[in-house]
Specification:
The complex is a heterodimer of chains A (about 110) and B (about 120). By secondary structure, chain A is mainly beta. Chain A contains no helices and eleven strands. In chain B, a hairpin with a 6-residue loop joins strand 5 and strand 6.
Chain lengths: ~110, ~120
């Protein structure tokens, strides 16, 4: 079985402050991990993905995430929040070997305060 | 580049009515998925199709049926809509020919209200 847990359904940060969105995974085999962003009334777009090649993954819009096996975590960070970062963020997990299912977390809504 | 296209974008149904949500992708992906999104529950998998002619249940299949019409199209049918099926429905596709670390591409969603 595989799952992801996102801590905090709502996170508020000031414009220019650090963004930290938390994701912990559970998987019986080494996972593949993703972060997606959803803007209001839109579908999900990929921010970044962990492919086992490097533990620190850089994505679009200045976001990055670090895979930590010892902590079973894949937290999303951005050094300086921008108003345009306000959206909902989803962590997701799948498995290697042709596994079809992708399991999503419950999402974290990011509010950026001017 | 259309990507994944869903129709309709919005729909209001009365309890007991039926409808089909359409999804088409132009990326030549083998795998296609239907998810529903509800507040506080993230995305939950309804059905998926690993290839043309095959479909499998996800975690919340009750009340739904699917058809993989061809490689491009994957439709979701509600035979007798219930208020509990009020949700936002997303179709997605993936290319697993390059390994399972490939991301899913999503449509814009269908907002369904059952009254």
């Amino acid at each position: 079985a595989q799952s992801v847990t996102q801590l905090g359904s709502h996170v508020s940060v000031s414009e220019g402050a650090l963004v930290l969105l938390r994701c912990n995974y559970s998987s019986s085999v080494p996972p593949y991990l993703f972060w997606y962003v959803q803007y209001p009334n839109q579908g999900l777009q990929l921010l970044l993905k962990y492919t086992s090649a490097a533990t620190l993954v850089k994505g679009i819009n200045g976001f990055e995430a670090e895979f930590k096996k010892s902590e079973t975590s894949f937290h999303l960070t951005k050094p300086s929040a921008h108003m345009s970062d306000a959206a909902e963020y989803f962590c997701a997990v799948t498995r290697p070997g042709g596994y079809q299912k992708v399991t999503f977390g419950t999402g974290t809504k990011l509010q950026v305060i001017p | 580049n259309a990507g994944v296209t869903q129709t309709p974008k919005f729909q209001v149904l009365k309890t007991g009515q039926s409808m089909t949500l359409q999804c088409a992708q132009d990326m030549n992906h083998n795998s296609m998925y239907w998810y529903r999104q509800d507040p506080g529950m993230g995305l939950r998998l309804i059905y998926y199709s690993a290839s043309e002619g095959t479909t499998d249940k996800g975690e919340v299949p009750n009340g739904y049926n699917v058809s993989r019409l061809n490689k491009r199209e994957f439709s979701l049918r509600l035979e007798s809509a219930a208020p509990s099926q009020t949700s936002v429905y997303f179709c997605a596709s993936r290319d697993l020919s390059r390994g399972t670390n490939t991301e899913a591409f999503f449509g814009q969603g269908t907002r369904l209200t059952v009254v």
